[in-house]
Amino acid sequence: MKIVVLAKQVPDTRNVGPDAMTPEGTVNRAALPAVFNPEDLNALEQALRLKDQFPGSTISVVTMGLPKSAEVIREALYRGADEGYVVTDRCLGGADTLATSYTLSQAIRKIGDFDIILGGRQAIDGDTAQVGPQIAEKLGLTQVTYAEEILSVDTDARKIVIKRHIDGGVETVEAPLPLVVTVNGSAAPCRPRNAKRVMKYKNATVIAERSAEDAAKYDELIAKKPFLNITQWGASDIEADPAQIGKAGSPTNVKAVQNIVFKAKDSRTMTSSDSDVEGLIIELLNEKIIG
Amino acid sequence: MANFYTDVPEIKFELENSPLMQRIVDLKERDYADKDEYDEAPQDFADAMDNYNRVLEIVGDVTANIIAPNAEDVDAEGPHCADGRVRYASKTYENLDAMVKAGMNGMTMPRRYNGLNLPNTVYTAANEMVSTGDAGFENIWSLQDCIETLYEFGNEDQHSRFIPRICAGETMSMDLTEPDAGSDLQSVMLKATFDEENNCWRLNGSKRFITNGDSDLHLVLARSEAGTRDGRGLSMFIYDKRDGGVDVRRIENKLGIHGSPTCELVYKNAKAELCGSRKMGLIKYVMALMNGARLGIAAQSVGLSQAAYNEGLAYARDRKQFGKAIIEFPAVYDMLSIMKAKLDAGRALLYQTARYVDVYKALDDIARERKLTPEERAEQKTYSRLADAFTPLAKGMNSEYANQNAYDCIQIHGGSGFMLEYACQRIYRDARITSIYEGTTQLQTVAAIRYVTNGFYGQVIADYGQLPVSAECEAYKARVAEMADKYNAAVEAVKAAENQDLHDICARHLYEMAADVIMCHLLMQNASKAPELFGKSLNVYVNFAEAEVEKHSLWVSRMTVDQLDSYRKA
Asked: H or E element: which one contains B157?
């Protein structure tokens, strides 16, 4: 089986201190360490379990970001992934979810021949949960979101059975391969790094991480140990349409960012009945929360 | 996220700051001969040290975030025995799985058997952290070091069949004690007979108090020479659970280390194979096995001391009485500071011992491949002797310190510590066994006393006294030298009395004096290099040790042959 795992390097918004936001209201990236997006680790674990179950499967991890996002690829290699791709290019900067999902889907097309694409439900910096589903749409694939566990895969019948997290319970669904699965944080945590793999892959890099004066040293190293080269792709490598990537491909415009302090202490549960929904809309309009 | 390695910089210091480390790694890596053959092998010393750090960071992560959080549940549930088999507490399986996935099995074994080829010093650091997380689980996991004995004394065929299985995560046990053979292993009676028809050995009888007795691979001490009654009739056998024939009759209900099943085993014609030569079981192999196990208990004890200190410190910072945190009261910080000083001193002793073991074991291993040079032979002899002399000190002192620290940890908690809801009560119960199993402190004294009387510790102390220290530590050096004088005088006085009973009753005092002085020296070396980490502990420990040495010195000076009568009980 060929499994693709989508991973993102994100600022660690789980442990925010007082300096987590700049006075302008944007994320102060310098104050927050860059980490492997937590739910992408849950997705990686599902991939690793499939690999345990189907020996000979390969796991390719793809990330888009700055060259230093190769850190998440190394992390995935330490935990059992087979290879990694960093999609990095100046022209990819400023991408919203639409441009990101386009870029990643182009990278996945280039990897090709995949059976399952796994990713976290959402990233903790944006919390949109849009990229996974958008990739499925762009690749014309079935999607199963909020997955908690892959229960079984029938490689002959090309079918997968997945347990999903839904409001107030779980649901078991069957879907055809290939497909996109986004994994919820309630799924099994990712296994630890493996000692041998850390020793093996600790010097793996993408080209953009290597300094010019060390280039010869790296060439020699990689000639001997090709697994130390993490594939780096730019926009042209994945044959991306310039109009659909980066800022140009991003219809989202941020008008303003506000600091919100949640004050409400009570919570209310509403049903999905028309009267409840209507009541809520009127209340929100009256209080000028929407409108 | 918590990490038991990066949160405790003292461990990393111990790993990196000994001049012996380069020698250990060069020997263990055979001058980096594996570097092109194995993807994970280091290229040079710096690369190897970087690997060790990374490996220990993983252990620090797994211990802090999986094993420690599981500890209370494992303690409460414990293992169960049904139909002759042991079922661990459910979260023990989670712990084992995490350690297997992290690749932390067969850590010291060569790469050709899928081991990590790590020095004992690095394994010791891992062991310590596992114990901080859960000392009961540490028992199960750390029994992997029995494979060292199989590696040292088994044949090539046994190596290739068994070592990869341990590296893949199968567990081990050492089946030594019996109902009538505890400290006195010479009385082991488990019967081993040769089955001519099937060309194998058969084991019959029972064993008691066997830690992790339902393991995959057992090293068994049994009587192969019919009619003998002493240690010379005992051999060591390998029993593979896949062959069957050994059942667990029951598991013990213990005060502590609940996660670790302590088993009574019944051998019914169990198929086994000889490990090494006949009749060498106790005299040679079990001695090697026990030395490794004792170093393991020393690491377990240091891990428990660290856990006790962590819990005591956190509670003292958090708990407010009389309008302030109790850590601000001298009576409380006095306890915390001595806990930390014993922890740092004991840890220094632990790693010094581990390094001595590493040098001689690496040379031993090289000697199996080629003839050692005369210089190497001399080096091997020196370190083997140092390891033998230091192991009982490290085990005895650290296990006593673990108990003392666990006691103080509860004391800091006050009444809450006596309730079962805080971790300190588990640490207290778990620590209690450390000064008992793998040889009681009293037996560590027996193992160590020859190095007291033959002047070996005295010589080590004199050699340590020659090592340069920082300007800040000079004042301590003079005080420690005075302590050494008192120790030497006490030894001479006891020897001069020429009475065996007097000698034996003074042994524990002399043993502790030697250990106190040695630990002062080790802390002085540490504080000279890293005053920010060890400066306070050095001061506290020297104050403590000075008083201890004075106490023992006075006691020994008062002790005369005619006093023995008032001590004897019948």
From this structure: helix B156-167
State the best of B32, B58, B99, B123 to mutate against chain A, taking most chain A CBs within 10 Å.
B58
Query: What is the rounded distance in angstroms from the CA atom of residue A87 to the CA atom of residue A163?
Result: 31
Tell me the nearest-neighbour CA distance from A36 into chain B, angstroms: 13
Nearest to B62 among A192, A224, A225 (CB): A192
Task: For residues B224 and B280, give the distance between their C-alpha atoms in angstroms, rounded to a whole number.
Answer: 10
Shared domain check, B497 and B361:
no
- Same domain? B222 vs B350: no
Residue B91 CB burial class (10 angstroms; 0-12, 13-18, ≥19) = buried
* End residue of a domain, out of B230, B252, B280: B280
Q: Sort out which chain A residues have CB atoms less than 8 A from B103's CB and list them.
A: 194-197
Asked if B61's CB is within 8 angstroms of A194's CB, the reply is no
Q: How far is CA B136 from the centre of its chain?
A: 14
- The domain defined by A2-244 folds into Rossmann fold (3.40.50)
Please write the tens of the pLDDT for every residue from A266-291.
778 888 899 999 998 998 888 887 76
Report residue A18's pLDDT band, with 50, 70 and 90 as the boundaries.
confident
> Which chain A residues contact residue B62 at CB under 8 A?
192
pLDDT recorded at residue A266? 73
Q: pLDDT class for A100, splitting at 50, 70, 90? A: very high
B441 in a structural domain: no
Residue A80's pLDDT band, with cuts at 50, 70 and 90, is: very high
Residues B419 and B461 reside in one and the same domain: no
pLDDT digits (tens, 9 = 90+) for B273-304: 999 999 999 999 998 888 899 999 999 999 99
Please state, as a whole number, how many other Cβ atoms lie within 10 Å of the Cβ of residue B238: 20
CA pseudo-torsion sign B451, B452, B454, B455: positive
Higher pLDDT, A16 or A159: A159
Segments making up each domain of chain A, as ranges: 2-244
CA distance A12 to chain B (A): 11
For residues A21 and A36, give the distance between their C-alpha atoms in angstroms, rounded to a whole number.
20
**Do B144 and B287 have their domain in common?**
yes
Looking at the structure, tell me whether residues B341 and B461 fall in a common domain: no
How high does pLDDT run on average in chain B? 97
Domain count, chain B: 3
Q: Do A200 and B40 touch (CB under 8 A)?
A: yes
Q: What is the ipTM of this complex?
A: 0.93
User: What is the span of the domain harbouring residue B228?
Assistant: 172-280
Higher pLDDT, A95 or B510: B510
Q: Which of B177, B201, B172 is nearest to B189 (CA)?
A: B177
Indicate whether B322 pLDDT > 90: yes
What's CA A88's distance to the chain center, in Å? 15
Q: Chain A: give the shortest CA distance to residue B552, in Å.
A: 46
pTM of the predicted protein model: 0.93
Of B55, B62, B101, the CB nearest to A198: B55
Are residues B247 and B345 both part of a single domain? no
Confirm if B193 and B202 have CB atoms less than 8 A apart.
yes
Q: Do A198 and B61 touch (CB under 8 A)?
A: no
Instruction: Pick A194's closest partner by Cβ from B42, B66, B103.
Output: B103
> For residue B79, what are its two tokens?
């293992």
Over the stretch A171-197, which tens digit does the pLDDT of each residue have?
Answer: 999 999 999 999 999 999 999 999 999
Same domain membership, residue B476 and residue B342: no
Return the axis-axis angle of helices B330-369 and B500-529, rounded to nearest 10°: 100
State residue A291's pLDDT score: 65
Asked if A192's CB is within 8 angstroms of B58's CB, the reply is yes
Does residue B332 lie in a domain region?
A: yes
Yes or no, beta carbons of B54 and A200 under 8 Å apart: no
Q: Which of B280, B297, B332 is the last residue of a domain?
A: B280
Chain A contacts to B (CB-CB under 8 A):
191-200, 202, 224-225, 227
Regarding whether B417 and B319 lie in a shared domain, the answer is: yes
- pLDDT tens per residue across span A33-44: 899 999 999 999
Domain presence at residue B72: yes
**Pick from B36, B101, B116: which is nearest to A191 by CB?**
B101
Contacts of B50 in chain A (CB under 8 A): 202
Q: Which residues of A touch B54 (CB under 8 A)?
A: 195, 198-199, 202
Could you read off the pLDDT of B128-147 as tens digits, one per residue?
A: 999 999 999 999 999 999 99
